Amino acid sequence: MALERVVFLDRDGVINYDSVDYVKSWAEYRFLPGSLEALAALTAARYRMILITNQSIIGRGMVALEVLEDIHRRMAAAVEQAGGRIDDIFFCPHRPDEDCACRKPRPGMILQASRRHRIDLSCAIMIGDNAKDILCGRNAGCGATILVRSGCGAAAEKELAAAGIRPTAVAADLLDAAGMILSGRVAAEGRQPDAGRRQP
Q1: Distance in angstroms (rounded) separating the CA atoms of residues 194 and 180
Q2: What are the residues whose beta carbons fall under 8 Å from the beta carbon of 44, sequence distance 6 or more?
Q3: Closest CA to 175 of 81, 42, 48
Q4: What angle (nearest 5°) sits at the alpha carbon of residue 9, between those of residues 184 and 154?
Q5: What is the pLDDT of residue 11?
Q6: What residue ranges define each of the domains in the chain, with the CATH number in brackets?
C-alpha cells in the first residue's frame, strides 16, 4: 500500500537558517524559530517527513561527506528530542554544472524517495523556500506545494510569479505551513492539473 500523508522538506531556509557561505558544520547550523515545533506537530499528526536538499558543498569540495552526515545526524537527533521525526534524508552532492538528475528543480530525489517508501506522490506535499523547491515538487507530481517566506522565499515568490507559476500556498515559515496542513487549508488530494510536467 502506497504511503500517504508525506511531507517533503527543503533544509536550508526552511528548517534552519541559510547562509551565503553555506552551512559547513554543526557549529554553523541553527534551527529557525518554530521549525522544531512544526516538525513535532506534523509528526504527532502522523505525517512522514522526508528531507530533500541540494548540498553542492560536497561536489565543490568544501566539506567531506562525513561532515554533512554528521550535521544530518545531529539535526535528526535534535528534531527527535523536540518530539518530531525526520523519516529519511536525500541530498544531491553535485555542482550545478554536473547536470545530474537529482539536483532540484529536477525531481530525482523525490522520485527515489517515492520508490524507496512507496509514496503516492499525488498525496504528498513539498515545502521549500526556493523556486527550485516548488518546481521540484511540481515536476515530481506532488499534490501540493508550499512556499515559505523564510530563507529566500520572498525572492522566490517574485521569481515564480514572473514565470506565471503559483505554489498551492505561501506561508510565513515552516510553523505557519504546518498549521495550514493540519487545519486542512492545504491538502494534497490527487494530482494538480500540471503536476509532473517539467518546467523551463
Answers
A1: 22
A2: 83
A3: 42
A4: 85
A5: 97
A6: 6-183 (3.40.50.1000)
The number of helices, as runs of H, and strands, as runs of E, in the chain is 6, 6
Report helix, strand and coil shares of the chain as percent, to nearest 5.
40, 15, 45
| pLDDT for 197 beyond 70 | no
Q: What is the pTM of this model?
A: 0.91
The length of the chain is 200
Catalytic residue ranges: 10, 12
Task: Cite the beta strand spans of 15-173 per DSSP E.
Answer: 48-54, 88-92, 125-128, 144-148, 169-171
Q: What is the pLDDT of residues 76-127, one digit of tens each?
A: 999 999 999 999 999 999 999 999 999 999 999 999 999 999 999 999 999 9
What is the gyration radius of the CA atoms in the chain, in angstroms? 15
Strands 169-171 and 6-9: unpaired
